[in-house]
């Protein structure tokens, strides 16, 4: 008597293909991603058009298609296009790094800076400015990259000491300890050297202003490699989200997955920090928005984060130009004002869920 009942319940419903709901979900998410890409295109145009001097959208499109050497064309190509392209690359990198970090640690409050990447890059920049007297972002970008990489390697080594693989808790503790030491070093240097502080504070605030395209050329290949690695980890991260034991039973090598993930976070966040300085809260906020749209599937969360993050970053950059005309507020300050309330709300929600 049970067999016919099971057969009827497990069979397809009349008029609905077996993969109908799954196909609709895939189409809905694809349409959402396409819509996000269209919004990103509009934000890019706004970033090129809005500033201390507003330029009509039609003129922006015309100058992009054919540069005629006019005053508007010079502003677009020399000033706004480099910062827009940098904002696109940095935003995508931070969003992808944030989603990857939260998936690796299974902590929705995790941030790319958890591995000490920001502190390592900042310490290296301070050392380059104080000891080598470098003052241009294109000059100390490689120092920032080296510092970010060294800090991540040290954190991973400490987090995995005595074990086959690092655990999220040990990584977080090691990252906090290394960041505290590096922050103390930064403070000691800038408090004793006024000229170093004057140069360092413009980088520390986080900005896409005044960075030449050469910075993007230097960091772009690393961003691409990091993005490819991150997107390739989507399926192992889905298995890891079910728990370590379940992940192992599904064939996921936890140590290898975490090592590749930390490498991708280092490349993405290190290159982004080297190019634009430490920009907070983008990597924390955007993955939550992506998960609210797509659900927990990392095959969708990662691409959505990669598109939504530059929307947030470029919008914050445009807002910083508008509210302080004829000057502007750096994008790192605007994202902090946006992200701090989100962090408080997330922390309160998790606390209420635990009560």
UniProtKB/TrEMBL annotation:
Positions of region (Disordered): 1-23
GO biological process, one term: siderophore-iron import into cell
Localization of this protein: Cell membrane
Domain of life according to the entry: Bacteria
Membrane topology: Multi-pass membrane protein
GO MF term set: transmembrane transporter activity
Positions of transmembrane segments: 31-52, 84-101, 113-134, 140-159, 171-192, 212-234, 301-323, 329-347
Location, primary (coarse class): membrane
CDD domains: TM_ABC_iron-siderophores_like
Keywords: Cell membrane, Membrane, Transmembrane, Transmembrane helix, Transport
A Pfam cross-reference name: FecCD
Gene Ontology cellular component list: plasma membrane
Family as reported in the entry's similarity comment: Belongs to the binding-protein-dependent transport system permease family. FecCD subfamily.
Annotated PANTHER family: FE(3+) DICITRATE TRANSPORT SYSTEM PERMEASE PROTEIN FECC-RELATED, FERRIC ENTEROBACTIN TRANSPORT SYSTEM PERMEASE PROTEIN
Protein name in the entry: Iron complex transport system permease protein
């Amino acid at each position: 008597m049970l067999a016919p009942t099971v057969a009827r319940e497990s069979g397809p419903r009349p008029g609905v293909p077996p993969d109908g709901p799954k196909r609709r979900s895939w189409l809905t998410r694809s349409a959402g991603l396409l819509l996000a890409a269209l919004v990103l295109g509009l934000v890019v145009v706004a970033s090129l058009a809005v500033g201390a001097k507003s330029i009509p959208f039609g003129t922006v499109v015309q100058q992009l298609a054919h540069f005629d050497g006019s005053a508007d064309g010079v502003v677009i190509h020399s000033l706004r296009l480099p910062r827009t392209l940098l904002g696109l690359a940095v935003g995508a990198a931070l969003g992808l790094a944030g989603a990857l970090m939260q998936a690796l640690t299974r902590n929705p409050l995790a941030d790319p800076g958890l591995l000490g990447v920001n502190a390592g890059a900042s310490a290296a920049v301070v050392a380059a400015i104080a000891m080598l007297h470098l003052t241009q972002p294109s000059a100390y970008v490689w120092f920032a990259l080296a510092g970010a990489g060294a800090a991540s390697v040290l954190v991973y080594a400490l987090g995995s000491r005595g074990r086959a693989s690092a655990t999220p808790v040990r990584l977080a503790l090691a990252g906090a300890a290394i960041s505290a030491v590096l922050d103390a070093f930064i403070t000691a240097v800038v408090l004793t050297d006024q000229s170093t502080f004057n140069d360092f504070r413009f980088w520390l605030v986080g900005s896409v202003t005044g960075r030449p395209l050469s910075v993007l050329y230097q960091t772009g290949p690393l961003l691409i490699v990091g993005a490819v690695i991150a997107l390739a980890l989507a399926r192992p991260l889905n298995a890891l989200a079910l728990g370590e034991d379940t992940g192992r039973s599904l064939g996921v090598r936890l140590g290898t997955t975490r090592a590749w993930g930390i490498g991708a976070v280092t490349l993405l966040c290190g290159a982004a920090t080297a190019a634009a300085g430490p920009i907070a809260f983008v990597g924390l906020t955007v993955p939550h928005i992506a998960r609210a749209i797509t659900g927990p599937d990392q095959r969708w969360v990662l691409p959505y984060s990669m598109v939504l993050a530059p929307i947030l970053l470029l919008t914050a950059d445009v807002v910083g130009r508008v509210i302080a005309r004829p000057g502007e507020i750096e994008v790192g300050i605007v994202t902090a004002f946006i992200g701090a309330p989100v962090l408080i709300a997330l922390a309160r929600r998790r606390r209420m869920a635990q009560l």
